[in-house]
TrEMBL record:
GO terms for biological process: regulation of DNA repair. Keywords: Cytoplasm. The keyword Nucleotide-binding does not apply. The keyword S-adenosyl-L-methionine does not apply. This is Regulatory protein RecX. Pfam families: RecX_HTH1, RecX_HTH2, RecX_HTH3. One of its GO terms (cellular component) is cytoplasm. It comes from Nocardioides euryhalodurans. Residues 85-126 form the RecX second three-helical domain. The gene is recX. It is found in: Cytoplasm. Residues 39-77 form the RecX first three-helical domain. Residues 133-179 form the RecX third three-helical domain.
Length: 195
């Protein structure tokens, strides 16, 4: 059985028969999309998974070709009804990232700045992390990482642990103090005789 190259696609058959491409099917294309409806759907889709900052949403709308005036109007409306709230977003972000990743306020401030959160709003959200919580998070990170560094000498372990804390936004003074204490505690535990 021989199959023709145009079999199954009617447009190719019309073109082969008439020698011209078929006219566009205006009804099949449907009506032009309303920019406001498209933007509203984009915003709702973006807000379904997690909260987002206003800047993140504005960037997504611009990326999808939504006119600036429509984007601004809808984002303002979403703020009015509470679906877009940079302050609530910042608080949620700080709480989640600090507890899950152990990030220090400096690193969290940088992340919030990249997400377009105002510095004042970010500072207010960062007050959730007190000095004690910051130190305890640093200790948890060091203890967890210390297990994989047992084969190294103290200088190498210190360098790697302080570097890890620095990448997570901890100040050098706190990083060195926590690492020194945790290395001391770890060496005391290994020196204790077994009963």
């Amino acid at each position: 059985m021989t199959s023709d190259p145009w079999q199954g696609d009617v447009r190719l058959g019309v073109e082969a028969w008439t020698g011209q491409p078929p006219p566009e099917d205006v009804e099949a294309a449907g009506p032009d999309a309303d920019a406001e409806e498209v933007a509203r759907k984009i915003l709702l889709d973006q807000l379904t998974g997690r909260a987002r900052s206003r800047k993140e949403l504005a960037d997504k709308l611009a990326q999808r070709g939504v006119p600036d005036d429509v984007a601004t109007r809808l984002l303002s409306r979403f703020e009015e009804i509470g679906l877009v709230d940079d302050s609530a977003f910042a608080h949620t972000w700080v709480s989640g990232r600090h507890s899950a990743k152990g990030l220090a306020p400096r690193a969290l401030a940088q992340e919030l700045r990249r997400k377009g959160v105002d510095d004042e709003v970010a500072r207010e959200a960062l007050t959730l992390i007190g000095a004690d919580e910051q130190e305890e998070a640093a200790r948890r990170l060091v203890r967890k990482k210390l297990r994989s560094l047992e084969r190294f000498d103290d200088a190498t372990r210190t360098r790697r642990l302080v570097g890890m804390l620095g990448r997570k936004g901890y100040p050098p003074g706190l990083a060195f103090a926590v690492v020194r204490d945790e290395l001391g505690s770890a060496s005391e535990e290994t020196e204790q005789p077994l009963d």
